[in-house]
Amino acid sequence: MANIANTYYPQQGRLVILGAGESGVGAAILGKDKGFDVFVSDLGVIAESYQKQLQDEGIAFESGQHTEAAILNADVIVKSPGIPEKAPLIKKLREAGIPLISEIEFAAQYTDARLICITGSNGKSTTTMLTHYMLEKAGLNVGLAGNIGKSFALQVARADFDVYVLEISSFMLDDMYHFRADVAVLLNITPDHLDRYDYKMENYVNSKFRVIQNQTANDFFIYCSDDEETVKALPRFDIKAMMLPMTQEDVVSVGAYLNEKKELIINIPNREIFAMNIEELSLQGRHNVYNNMASGLVAKVQELRNQTMKESMGSYVNIPHRLEHVAFIGGVNYINDSKATNVNSVWYALESFSPDIVLLLGGVDKGNDYDMLRDLVKQKVKAIICIGKDTSRIHDAFEDEVEVIVNSASMDDAVQIASHLAKKGDTVLLSPACASFDWFKNYEERGDKFKDAVMAL
């Protein structure tokens, strides 16, 4: 059983939801269905679509404020992963000893479905979508949730899936305690969101490893044995699940690796061995080989047929805003990688294309260390166009590495500049390494504006 025993949290009484986005509204509906007295509170303005959903369900809510008297009387609280621990209200709730959990933790109590949980600093969305695509192609009754798609809680309340593929962020994991993944996938760990972890890498690593908590000998842990931080941390954890490494550097007897013919090999005890040439994968690039390895290992755990896996890996189309091909104009390739909100994602993006690259970089800097990009930028990037309000750190990091580094006034302006700098055979790449909310609502809007500007050329 994947679910957690119902004794950990109150099963009736007052349920308060902090944050009325996709996960919060889903948790509210599940709570209502389970007989809780539900109240939703959001310090920001709740989107009209979510307000309507709450009204239709007859769930009480407040928008643009937190009324503490209506929150501190909760029996259990589900909090949005975006609310940091240092928020004054969260400190008060901790002091009051009220259980404060994530939507995933709350919803897991109410399902016996098999839970496949995918985390990592980079590649989560692609691997989650590819895994879901593969399992769906195989005819499984499978849901997609977590950081992606419809809320897990809403699907537990109103749908009936046998398996869920969940994209799980470190922020979600921080509020998960008794939850158990049948299959845990840890793709990689590189510095990200360190502002939420007291700028200590170890705290962030510990958060990622929460994906394996409560696993038993009947479960599976898929991880990258080429990833330095993951391998360094492994000895600190008591891992009970079957460990399935993936590597492009070695040959492993159990797990996933590349052979001398450039075939992706997947070998799990009591399963048919899988082999596929990496040139046949629909997602190309070294980072995508890891994503396919992870999804392939999940598929093998689920006992999918090799033919189904091959068809899926050969036909999958990537998600929007992640190395998304936008257009080919005047011999120039335009690529939207707006989802690259950290330095390591940009490293993967640069690694995926040949020189010469015109790179659109910048936004809200989360304490980025640009050192790891210097060599690749030197080798592959002919110009950097800075987007966002504060560009000083990008100038400091790269002015010695590229001949051209300029600021832009808007996304339209950035794309216009890029189109003049790029020659036939070049790539214009939006891969910002930063959060988007100085100029945009989110990375999706940033990516859409980029696509609009490209199509207007």
UniProtKB/TrEMBL annotation:
GO terms for molecular function: ATP binding; UDP-N-acetylmuramoylalanine-D-glutamate ligase activity. This is UDP-N-acetylmuramoylalanine--D-glutamate ligase. Residues 118-298 form the Mur ligase central domain. It catalyses: UDP-N-acetyl-alpha-D-muramoyl-L-alanine + D-glutamate + ATP = UDP-N-acetyl-alpha-D-muramoyl-L-alanyl-D-glutamate + ADP + phosphate + H(+). Residues 321-434 form the Mur ligase C-terminal domain. Pfam families: Mur_ligase_C, Mur_ligase_M, MurD-like_N. The keyword DNA-binding does not apply. PANTHER family: UDP-N-ACETYLMURAMOYLALANINE--D-GLUTAMATE LIGASE (PTHR43692:SF1). Keywords: ATP-binding, Cell cycle, Cell division, Cell shape, Cell wall biogenesis/degradation, Cytoplasm, Ligase, Nucleotide-binding, Peptidoglycan synthesis. ATP binds at G120, S121, N122, G123, K124, S125, T126. Belongs to the MurCDEF family. Its EC number is 6.3.2.9.
